Amino acid sequence: MTQPSHPPSDPLTRIFAYRAIDLRDRFPQPLVSFREALECLQSDRSYMAAMSGEINAYLHGGYSLTIPDDFFIRRSGEIDATLVPPEENDAVCAKVEAWLREMLTRPDVDTTKSVPAEERPYSLDQLLAQCDPQALPTEELQAWQDMPDVGCEIVDMPTETDIWQAAERLFESREGAERWMTSPEISLRGRTPVDVMVEDPQLVYDLIMRLEYGVYT
Predict the structure, then answer these.
(1) Contact (CB, 8 A) for 45 and 64
(2) Distance from C-alpha of 196 to C-alpha of 36, rounded to nearest angstrom
(3) Could you give the CA distance from residue 215 to residue 88 in angstroms, rounded to a whole number?
(4) Cα(first)–Cα(last) distance of the chain, in Å?
(5) What is residue 147's DSSP assignment?
(6) Residue 211 φ then ψ, to 5°
(7) Could you tell me the maximum CA-CA distance found in the chain, to the nearest angstrom?
(8) Model confidence over 125-179: pLDDT tens digits?
């Protein structure tokens, strides 16, 4: 893995890898730069990255930094969110690099000392092992990857059946789904999901997906 070129005194040289994380964790490999991680989330392979995409920077010595998602996710209203378009990547990368340099030189945060192995959020071996194409996934990961696509991967407008099935899955019963569907919802400006569904089924379906995956915006 070829590291990006930075002057020896640049604090960014302490970062050895980045990771892009979406809801299906489809990008387990360590990446060279923040730009590569951002492009992963922007790619067609990513799953609902605008809802809960995450990019982490991993430092020598055992530290990691989670890059604030407001650098690359644009939110409007309570449930609308989109990734920044690729044409803004240069500006976003510049802002993120400035933020990383600030974080890595803050006097109140010492990231120069090694973290004990048992306290590390990762190990280098763990990160590199995820690059091994021959490595067998865990049963839990395999089950997660084998799940049918839902949410934003439904190409057509969701039907009422899609919405009711999603609500039943979320609330684990028809009764729970009916209670929620007929109750005023703050995210829908006090209207009930069953009423909004008639005019804008996608809005109700997206709200259920956000609740299902614990994404509150």
Answers:
(1) no
(2) 39
(3) 24
(4) 36
(5) S
(6) -65, -40
(7) 62
(8) 555 555 554 555 556 555 555 555 444 444 457 788 888 988 898 888 889 899 9
Transcribe 36-90 into DSSP letters.
HHHHHHHSTT-SSHHHH-EEEEEETTS-EEEEPGGGTEEEETTTEEEEPPGGGHH
| Rg, Å, the chain Cα set | 20
> What are residue 56's DSSP bridge partners?
19, 66
Range with the largest mean pLDDT of 87-96, 112-121, 159-168: 87-96
Q: Give the whole-angstrom CA distance, residue 102 versus residue 174.
A: 51
The candidate with the shortest Cα–Cα distance to 96, out of 64, 120, 71, 127, is 71
- Single pTM value for the model: 0.54
Cβ–Cβ contacts within 10 Å for residue 93, how many? 16
Q: Which residue has the tokens 């997206």?
A: 206
Task: Please state the length of the chain.
Answer: 217
